[in-house]
Amino acid sequence: MSDTATGSPTTPAIRCEGLTKRYRQGDLDVDVLMGIDLAIAPREQIAIVGVSGSGKSTLLHLLGGLDEPTAGRVSVIGRDMSKLGPAARGRLRNHALGFVYQFHHLLPELTCLENVALPLTIGGQATRVAAKEAERLLERVGLEHRLRHKPGEMSGGERQRAAVARALVTRPSCVLADEPTGNLDERTAARVWDLIAELNRESGTSFLVATHDHALAGRMDRVLTLTDGRVDEST
Ligand code: ADP
Ligand code: MG
After folding, report:
1. Helix H segments across the chain?
2. Has this prediction a pTM greater than 0.90?
3. What is the atom index within ligand 1 of the atom nearest the CA of 24?
């Protein structure tokens, strides 16, 4: 797995500057992110830890272009998201980023193979080419025996491995994973983190993984802690 959608070997996969998010809750303004500067280098694996409510999901949504910051900028492979219209932003997201969530978000009526092929078919790939690439990824994550199964027929760990395969199928520059193992038992969670680390080394895809589990986070290159709207390097 090489040739990811990276801009250049030195352009950060994702960079943000002065990233700020304020939510209105009733008649109260809540400052969740207060000026975050962060660069995710090509091939880098970063864990972002923080207690529940510290703003991890908010940060990932902003970095992935799924939500708008109150202030500050995000660029993905060197392109400023705020300067792109919705269609161009969607295309950049589809080609440069992959997403994994706490709950797998696989479509229940599709097979495992169809789910993993979906980002490619949405991106305009022919069905047969997409299926072949999806099958390759599913073999890599140890799910070659589950290609025709529906998500409802798979275990929690298998579903998350399929979700990781789906995030990587487009060979993105960066995968954003929001508590990808939050719903799994300890042993299964550790195996998914091992898999993420291996795929990161093989594919060169950067990973930013949010978690509240410090032990799992310690497996990554860098651990950032989100507290009071700011990020600190903790290792
Ligand atoms: P984490 O993922 O670390 O648990 P979140 O990013 O989900 O944290 O939430 C951070 C804070 O922002 C919380 O106080 C939450 O209530 C608030 N928040 C998140 N989304 C919204 C929203 N859409 N509207 C208002 N407040 C929100
Ligand atoms: Mg969250």
Report:
1. 56-63, 86-96, 112-122, 127-140, 156-168, 186-203, 214-217
2. yes
3. 25
